[in-house]
Amino acid sequence: MPSECDHSTRDEDDHDSMPQLPSIRPPPHSHNSKQGVYFILEKASLVAAFVGKKYQILNPDEHANFLRRKNMNPYDFRPDIVHEALLQIMSSRLCLSGRLRAVFIRTDEGILIRVAPQTQIPKTLGSFCNMMMELLQKFSIKSKGGHGKLLKLIQNPVTNHLPINSLKIGLSFSSTKAVQLRDYVSGANCDENLVFVVGAMAHGKIDVDYIEDLISVSGYPLSAGTCLRRICIALERSWNIQ
């Protein structure tokens, strides 16, 4: 199984056998914009185990009996949360306009994944889990159109993959700093890239030391998908993305 090591050698060796995905290309002019956005999905559940005759990403719907036999709480294994989060981001006008720079996923096990903005996320959870299992085994997935690697395992820490001129913003229901998202993003420095850090787990809160501002966007606990949808809409309005 993969670990947090440098996988560059393996990438080259497995180039011909690397799984491939269709991609969605952003407009060619889109990266001229100064300000962009990154998303980091922390504590995502993408746990692989040998079930039956093959490795699979564990989820409570398909593997409840297996997890109980192992005395593991089925609801600690929720790949559906990161799946829904990615669908919200990648289907947004924000992404289609080219203002999304990258999405990073950090799993419970500390594996760091980079998702390119043009990645087409499978609609069903089963297909998504199969894709992520392929990624964990092959270390990267390339585009069918020859546009490079859409998903790949990269080295920690995630801050090494962010631009210097970026503001790292964590979202937490427990934060005492309540904001209106549209006002918050409108007031951001236009020369800074915005990095939103959202927990991709069912319970708990993000606990990372690189966050520079911790905000709350609702008086109620929200799912990761709902938080991300609100962020995307606020940025689309602030940046006049139609």
Automatic annotation (TrEMBL):
One of its GO terms (molecular function) is rRNA binding. It comes from the Eukaryota. One of its GO terms (biological process) is rRNA base methylation. The keyword Transcription does not apply. CDD domains: Nep1-like. It holds the Pfam family EMG1. Its main location: nucleus. Belongs to the class IV-like SAM-binding methyltransferase superfamily. RNA methyltransferase NEP1 family. This is Ribosomal RNA small subunit methyltransferase NEP1. It comes from Cajanus cajan (Pigeon pea).
